[in-house]
User: Which sequence fits this backbone?
């Protein structure tokens, strides 16, 4: 596939579904974002979303499993970054994303698993979240709005 600035893979990694591997993967992803000039604020948002989503895969999709693999990819799109995560763990309950409004999140905390704080965070920090399960594989896409490549760099004080 031809990659343009609007269709650029910024980071791709396959790793074991463990908490240690998630930490290492998030660090590698952040280093890749620094290398292409992503600013601190945008990188922090991406790091938070990536870490929360990957930890959810380890804790829930692979709960009780001795081993598993996760594939993750960060892709640049116009004014956005797309995080794609694939795994062969258990599907989401009901085969769908939990319902959570973008406004009034405190009102629905009781209906979300484990209080749903991580899920609320993902909903708040992303423009769009999509989940599908195809041929025994979970595919989660998280879209974060940002135009960090065109943003002026702050001048040193």
Assistant:
């Amino acid at each position: 596939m031809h990659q343009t600035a609007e269709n650029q893979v910024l980071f791709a990694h396959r790793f074991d579904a463990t908490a240690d591997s998630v930490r290492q993967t998030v660090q590698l992803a952040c280093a890749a974002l620094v290398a292409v000039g992503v600013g601190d604020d945008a990188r922090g948002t991406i790091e938070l979303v990536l870490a929360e989503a990957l930890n959810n895969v380890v804790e829930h999709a692979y709960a009780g499993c001795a081993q598993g693999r996760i594939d993750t990819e960060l892709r640049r799109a116009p004014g956005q970054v797309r995080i794609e995560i694939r795994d062969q763990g258990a599907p989401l309950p009901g085969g769908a994303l939990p319902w959570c409004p973008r406004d009034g999140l405190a009102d629905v905390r009781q209906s979300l698993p484990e209080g749903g704080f991580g899920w609320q965070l993902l909903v708040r920090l992303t423009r769009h979240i999509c989940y599908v399960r195809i041929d025994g594989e979970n595919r989660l896409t998280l879209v974060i709005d940002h135009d960090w490549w065109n943003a002026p760099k702050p001048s040193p004080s």
Q: What stands out?
A: The chain has one domain: 5-145. The two ends are 43 Å apart (CA to CA).
